[in-house]
Amino acid sequence: MNLPYFLARRIYRSDSGQHTVSRPAVRIATAGVAVGLAVMIVTVSVILGFKHTIRDKVVGFGSHIRIENFLAQQAAQPLPVAVSDSLLRAIRSVQGVSRVARYTQAQGILKTDSDFLGLVFKGIGKDYDVSFLRQHLVEGSLPSFGAGNDYPLLLSRHTALKLQLHVGDRISAYFFGNDRLRVRRFTVSGIYQTDMAQFDQTLCFTHYRVPQRLNEWTADQCSGMEVTVSDFSRIDQTAERLWPVVSHYTDPQGQSLSAQTIQEAYPQIFSWLSLLDVNVWVILVLMVCVAGFTMISGLLIIILERTQMIGTLKALGAANLMLRRTFLWLATFIIGRGMLAGNLIAIALIVVQQHTGFIRLDPANYYVDTAPMELNVPVLLLLNAGTLLVTLFVLIAPSLFVSHISPARTMHFE
């Protein structure tokens, strides 16, 4: 039989009412562990949910890897590149690539009787993944991108409110190029909202052929290609495998290609998200300290109240190591109870927030209107294991107090 475990279990289950001081101390220690772990779980879930939500929104507008004309980033006007079917097949065959879609772009001005707004018109086709746009659609419907000769328009709510447009309204758009002005009449088919002002204020969507015709490009010319990878954590490796295919390609007009990951395209957003990790570590350290200090005080109080028992066991031949292990087992029971309560509190809060969104945020500052929370089971288990190990480790030193208790003195201790 494991004697330290047996003694610790008997002490933990004891409810004789004699130890009136240690019982509040145990409750405080349990509450400290519960609160500390709950705060850690909620904090990590919020940071993970926030980072993944913002990342998915940025990726929704620009995919994981963007391939375009090498000179496009330095040009004021969209520069085309001719994309052959063989190039598309070569890109799709690269390990880690799950989808490739061409897109077109044109710069224009939407004008009503009372206001106007300059926007980038992004043309997308049937091969484009519109799940992101469908997810954030708030009014109307998505047009059948890539089909027909009409001029549908998918606007952001910001643009619709500024120009006082609704679904079904017709609006004129003006495009400048090749020393002449073109006017097209678009029909608002849908309105989306992502709360990403950087994109909502500058971007609208239409058929793939619309910008192509406005720019007077040939059927095989486009603004570029957007590549979706199967594993975002391996986006850099996929980009490295993709680079030889892209760098060796030259279209019939002599244009070269460049590939850029989403982190390289929007470094300010991803650098800001990376800074959130520092906040997480600070909170984790503080909460572990709270749990550790409450457990240290609780364990010392328990040891002091069990002085007579310790002296008796020493007189019967119990070794200091065995007694230290007994109180460490007792601490494990207390920590386990606190961790169970902390997990229940945190998981309940996360689930309620996911279903109700009662914690609101200002989308102008946070890009989301509710606090996103993500329940990640591996991270949850890691936090529990880390809390248990770290808390027990800091209790090793307080358990040494048992070694300094003398049996001769404790026999008369009251």
Written description of the protein model:
The chain is an alpha+beta fold and 414 residues long. It is 52% helix and 19% strand. Strands 1, 3, 4, 5, 6, 7, 8, 9, 11 and 12 form a 10-stranded mixed sheet that branches. The chain has a two-stranded antiparallel ribbon with strand order 2-10. The two termini are 31 Å apart. The relative contact order is 0.19.
The Cα radius of gyration reads 32 Å
Indicate the proportion of strand residues: 15-25%
Give the oligomer, counting copies of the same chain as homo and different chains as hetero. Answer: single chain
Largest sheet: 10 strands, mixed
Uncertain segments are none
Shape: elongated
State the end-to-end distance. 31 Å
In total, the number of strands is 12
SSE string, helix = H, strand = E?
A: HHEEHEEHEEHEEHEHEEHEHHHHHHHH
Question: Helix count, per DSSP?
Answer: 16
The chain-level mean pLDDT equals 86
- Range of helix content: 40-55%
Which structural class best describes the helix and strand composition?
alpha+beta
